[in-house]
Amino acid sequence: MFGGPDGLRRLMSQDQIRPQSVGRTLARFGGYFSRFVPTLTVVLVLVVISTWGQVLTPELVGQAVDCYIAKPIAGAFGGAAVAQQAAAGSASRCWYAADLSQLSASAKVAHWLGWQHVFVDTARLETMSADAAIAGLAQIVMLSIAVFAAISALTGLLFFSMARAGQHVLTDIRVDLFAHLHRLSIGYYSDHEVGDLMSRITNDTEAIGQAFSFALVNVLGGILLIGWISYKMLAASFAYALLSLAVVPLMAITTVWFSNQARRAFRISRAELGSVNAELQESISAVREVQAFNRADENLDSFRATNAANRDANVRAVAFTSALAPALEALGYLALAIVAAGGGWLLLNGAELLGASVSLGLIITFIGYSQRFNQPIQQIAVLWTNIQNAIAGGERIFQLLDEKPSIMDRPGARTMPTLNGDVTFENVSAEYTTGTPVLRNVSFHAKAGQTIAIVGPTGAGKTTIINLLPRFYDASTGSVKIDGIDVRDVTAESLRRQIGIVLQDTFLFSASVMDNIRFGRPDASDAEVVAAAALAHADAFIDRLPLKYDTVLGERGSGLSQGQRQLLAIARASLANPRILILDEATSSVDTRTERLIQQAFDKLLTGRTAFVIAHRLSTIRNADVVLVLDQGQIVEQGTHDSLLAKRGFYFDLYNSQYQKMAPQTQLNGKAHLEAAPLN
Question: Which phi and psi (to 5°) does residue 583 adopt?
Answer without folding.
Answer: -115, 100
